[in-house]
Amino acid sequence: MDKEPIQLAIASGLRRLRKEKGVTQAQLAKSLRLSQAQLSKIENGGGSLTAEQFIWLLQEYSLPLGYFIVPKQKFEEDPFLQNALVHLGATHLRLVPGVAVPERLEFPETAILEALVEDSSRLITALAPVIVRHCERINFQRIARDLRTYAFGVRNRIWWIVDGTYHALERRLQDPSLPRNFRRLYQKAFLLLERKKSEASQAQEQLRDQEDELDQDLISERTIQLIKKNRDPLAQRWHILTRVKGADFEQALKDSEEQ
Hints:
2 domains; about 60% helix; two-stranded parallel ribbon
């Protein structure tokens, strides 16, 4: 059964509201007197809010009446986050003119965390060159812990991107035409990420059957089942419902090499 357009608008509005106000899913769920699992379901288009909950949100955050009825498609990716990723190493992305990077996004861990909950496959694959350049000072376990409180159901994304970046590096290092400066950078990052494999393995052992619906157009059961059937082994291993392939992380590395 297709998810109703109003449910998709509510889902988009709630995620956008939490991001704008810096509120975690657990905090908002408590304020709305919902469990985090219930709010997660609503944010994925699987439910709605009561009239009382709507009124509380509008009053508490001084929102306009139309905040939750604007179609999801009209909201673009975060330009502040995009520019932050460019400065952190995703040089193949376009700098958005006139947009200064907030201080909090100058830190790789914060930018990675926010990109992982952005639901943008383009920004998420762009994390590969960011991780490569900064993996020595990134605490992946801390990001994983933050994901558990920031948004229910997306906790696997950090290890998925680490796993994808690791194998993308492995493939790039097999390219004899790889420039020397990138070869040195990639060799160092490869060895550092190899040490994280045990942490990723532990996280994989704790995986539940819950699927993480990353792609924003997963609005019908038919689409979901099609994605589940055709996703690549990397996404299947981490229970991510997405069209993103392991090769997309490698392509992000290649594209960033050319800039």
